[in-house]
């Protein structure tokens, strides 16, 4: 397996620079939406790790997103905790929670886990209502957006956008550390053939739980940032639909592609928005139709589609989609661990 | 005691709704190994069609019969157009496709009929019998009888007719069935159509008490998932028992356990699913699959 070369790193840097120009180019409300899309991208990155590199279908990312949001809101508003500490608490808390969910998940096959996590995700709004002493129930919690430091010539929305961008950048770095090299090979081995991975000395259970924890931590971080961007959390923001959006975004973008996570996030944030300009009720119809059609024509997501087109044109593949097909054939999967560097 | 018995009866009533939808989910799962998360929304759409026909002046039962046929066609069409082409895709792709259908059908109901709650006519009379201080409405009894009849019909069809046998064969052995002359795809399409009819019946039973709205079946599908998991994903009979158990557990749990209360009633299907997955993952009536290495 090839070590990550300089080229993806450069491409990533270029994309990062392009994204940094967004507040200067786009109007205010689009900056807000772009920030939301960045938080979605972070949650989807976490989901990619879990689904694309560990083969577990989870609809619980919305749960961790919600918990992250509420942890940040409650800590900042009720306990006057500084932003960075509140975000760190959201990450740490969700990592622990993710590990706790990950332990029973070891025993569940794909479908069972999907159902259990779906019901868990549906349970979020009622739980928020039930513990309304802490969560303030339907009235929700308003948060003061973090103020930019005096030496930065930025308005508040742009500052929050850059906060999200920095967060997303951090997550991409963490993610690329995880999916390349030794750890990545371990993850893929566990996904493709746990028995053989075990016999090569990989601790399958521990790897799975750790992946679940990391994925949940991404979700919690994203939720915390979302609370800052939105400056408000309420049960309405964390309906079952949120988990649907994350899953859809992950698959639409391309389940093993980091670029895909961002593409997917942009699609699930902006597609309903744009189509609601046509007609409010048509928005759902277009959205749902797009999901169905996407699965018919481009099952490996937009990143997979671009990758395929590029490689057909003889150019280098855009992402690591070429290295990591979502579900390789059994004959090819077993040799992952035995390959030489 | 009377309170508990009364809640038991109420639970059975809502249990019939969960059971009918769970049967639909299980039929689809048995045939195609897919959990159709959109089943409830498709059913709601068809109940809207029935409602529209009653508004146009058709008698209720005629409208229901036509809508049942339409839901069969809808289920079959959804399978042919959206699901069959990706039948061999990884499960997450199919899940996303079902989410797309879910969003699409909900939006379509919203677009055509708006978000207001509509009154759907009762199917049975308003008579209430009192037996040993327990009030049993004709509505509850009617729902239970409907479910029993339909379940009997379905079982008889699978058991005694050629087409039922062919459908079971197609579900069990997709690769080998063609060798004995079974058109697998036709059978799977039939399965999806029949399942859609069962989903429609669940929604019709639910509509008078829940009021007709685009999101009517949103919580019902959660209970139905619990029912199917409880009964076992390859057993229609299990789905019916599971549905009734979930219904009773819901009413008893919300009245008797103060910590749950009315707000957290969705916690009950979650707890049931968790419990069954750890005690008996294949469900009460399910057979545990053996995998060939």
TrEMBL record, chain A:
One of its GO terms (molecular function) is branched-chain amino acid transmembrane transporter activity. It is found in: Cell membrane. Residues 1-20 form the signal peptide. InterPro entries: ABC_transp_permease (IPR001851), LivM-like (IPR043428). Residues 328-341 have a biased composition (Basic and acidic residues). It is a multi-pass membrane protein. One of its GO terms (cellular component) is plasma membrane. Residues 321-341 are annotated as: Disordered. Keywords: Cell membrane, Membrane, Signal, Transmembrane, Transmembrane helix. Its main location: membrane. It comes from the Bacteria. The chain crosses the membrane at residues 30-50, 57-77, 83-103, 110-129, 159-179, 209-234, 246-271, 278-298. PANTHER family: HIGH-AFFINITY BRANCHED-CHAIN AMINO ACID TRANSPORT SYSTEM PERMEASE, HIGH-AFFINITY BRANCHED-CHAIN AMINO ACID TRANSPORT SYSTEM PERMEASE PROTEIN LIVM. This is Amino acid/amide ABC transporter membrane protein 2 (HAAT family). It comes from Aquabacter spiritensis.
UniProtKB/TrEMBL annotation, chain B:
This is Amino acid/amide ABC transporter membrane protein 1 (HAAT family). Keywords: Amino-acid transport, Cell membrane, Membrane, Transmembrane, Transmembrane helix, Transport. One of its GO terms (molecular function) is transmembrane transporter activity. The keyword Transport applies. The keyword Plastid does not apply. Its main location: membrane. The chain crosses the membrane at residues 12-28, 60-82, 94-114, 134-158, 179-205, 266-285. Pfam families: BPD_transp_2. GO terms for cellular component: plasma membrane. It is a multi-pass membrane protein. InterPro entries: ABC_transp_permease, BCAA_transport_permease. One of its GO terms (biological process) is amino acid transport. Belongs to the binding-protein-dependent transport system permease family. LivHM subfamily. It is found in: Cell membrane.
């Amino acid at each position: 397996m090839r070590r990550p070369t300089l080229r993806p790193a450069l491409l990533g840097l270029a994309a990062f620079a392009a994204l940094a120009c967004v507040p200067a180019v786009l109007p205010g409300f689009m900056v807000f939406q772009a920030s939301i899309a960045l938080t979605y991208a972070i949650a989807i990155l976490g989901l990619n790790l879990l689904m694309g590199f560990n083969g577990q279908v989870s609809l619980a990312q919305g749960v961790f997103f919600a918990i992250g949001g509420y942890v940040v809101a409650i800590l900042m508003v009720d306990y006057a905790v500084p932003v960075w500490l509140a975000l760190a608490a959201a990450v740490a808390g969700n990592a622990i929670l993710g590990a706790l969910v990950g332990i029973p998940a070891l025993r569940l096959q794909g479908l069972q886990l999907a159902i259990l996590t779906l019901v868990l995700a549906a349970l979020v709004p009622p739980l928020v209502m039930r513990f309304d002493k802490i969560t303030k129930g339907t009235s929700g919690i308003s948060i003061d957006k973090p103020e930019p430091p005096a030496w930065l010539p930025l308005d508040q929305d742009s500052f929050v956008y850059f906060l999200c961008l920095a967060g997303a950048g951090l997550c991409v770095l963490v993610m690329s550390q995880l999916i390349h090299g030794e750890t990545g090979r371990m993850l893929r081995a566990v996904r493709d053939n746990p028995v053989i991975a075990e016999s090569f000395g990989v601790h399958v259970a521990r790897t799975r739980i750790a992946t679940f924890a990391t994925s949940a931590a991404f979700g919690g971080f994203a939720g915390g940032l979302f609370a800052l961007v939105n400056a408000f959390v309420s049960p309405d923001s964390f309906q079952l639909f949120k988990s649907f959006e994350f899953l859809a975004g992950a698959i639409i973008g391309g389940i093993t592609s980091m670029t895909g996570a961002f593409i997917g996030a942009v699609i699930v944030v902006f597609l309903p928005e744009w189509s609601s300009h046509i007609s409010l009720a048509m928005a759902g119809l277009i959205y749902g139709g797009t999901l169905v059609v996407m699965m018919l024509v481009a099952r490996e997501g937009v990143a997979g589609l671009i990758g395929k087109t590029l490689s057909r044109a003889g150019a280098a593949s855009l992402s690591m989609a070429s290295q990591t097909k979502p579900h390789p054939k059994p004959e090819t999967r077993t040799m992952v661990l035995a390959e030489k560097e | 005691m009377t309170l508990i018995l009364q809640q038991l009866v109420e639970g059975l009533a809502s249990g019939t709704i969960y059971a009918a939808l769970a049967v639909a989910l299980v039929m689809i799962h048995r045939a195609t190994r897919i959990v159709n998360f959109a089943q409830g929304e498709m059913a709601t759409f068809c109940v809207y069609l029935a409602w529209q026909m009653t508004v146009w002046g058709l008698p209720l039962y005629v409208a229901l019969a036509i809508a049942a046929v339409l839901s069969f066609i809808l289920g079959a069409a959804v399978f042919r157009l959206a699901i069959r082409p990706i039948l061999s895709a990884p499960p997450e792709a199919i899940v996303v496709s079902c989410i797309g259908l879910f969003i699409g059908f909900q939006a379509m109901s919203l677009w055509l009929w708006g978000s207001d709650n509509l009154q759907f006519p009762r199917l049975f009379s308003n008579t209430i019998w009192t037996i040993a201080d327990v009030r049993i409405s004709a509505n509850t009894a009617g729902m239970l009888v409907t479910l029993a009849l339909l379940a009997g019909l379905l079982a008889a069809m699978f058991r005694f007719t050629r087409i039922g046998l062919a459908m079971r064969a197609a579900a069990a052995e997709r690769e080998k069935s063609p060798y004995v002359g079974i058109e697998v795809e036709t059978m799977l399409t039939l399965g999806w159509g029949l399942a859609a009819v069962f989903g429609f019946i669940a929604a019709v039973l639910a509509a008078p008490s829940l009021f007709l709205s685009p999101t009517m079946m949103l919580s019902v599908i959660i209970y139905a998932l619990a029912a199917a998991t409880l009964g076992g994903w390859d057993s229609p009979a299990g789905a019916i028992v599971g549905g009734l158990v979930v219904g009773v557990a819901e009413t008893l749990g919300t009245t008797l356990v103060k910590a749950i209360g009315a707000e957290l009633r969705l916690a009950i299907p979650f707890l049931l699913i968790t419990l069954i997955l750890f005690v008996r993952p294949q469900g009460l009536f399910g057979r545990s699959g053996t995998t060939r290495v």
